[in-house]
Design brief:
Strand content: 25-35%
Number of domains: 2
Structural class: alpha+beta
Helix content: 25-40%
CATH topology of the largest domain: Alpha-Beta Plaits
CATH class of the largest domain: Alpha Beta
Shape: globular
Number of strands: 8
Length: 179
Amino acid sequence: MRYAALLRGINLGNRRMVMADLRRVLETEGADDVATHLQSGNAVFTIGESDPDVVRGRLEAAIGAEFGFDVPLVLVTAEELAAVIAACPYRVQADADPTKVHVTFFDPMPSDDAWSGFDLAALAPEGMATGPGVLFMHLPNGMGRAVLPGLLAKATSKVTATTRNWRTVIKLAGMLEVG
């Protein structure tokens, strides 16, 4: 089975991780064809185990043991990532500037109640929409100035969530050989 592992909160503050060390840990856990992207905890690999819960548990335990801190992660298959790309309602904006469209991956996906109280009109020009296991955000003024990500972090604090910009999503899709 081929997966992309999206690690949450890597290389922020004292949660430092060298990607070569991450690749080594994944290989020690039986992963093959391991590749990483950027320094923010994106890894693509092939592994014999097809149960994502088993894979996630093994990797989280091994990474925690190696680096000395817990690292929640979200696993995404090629098929799941292809569905996310196909469902993106902000493709025009992503094509214009892939750094302004972000995808938050969840495990598990929260119910719509998590963000039902958001006043989207008041957040404009920021926008959001749900997709298959994800939440899409269009942040035309950039992530650093956006209000929506902070609201989402508070609303979804009880689940594993990690966000990638569209450029990274597309790069990971290519690494997974998604069309």
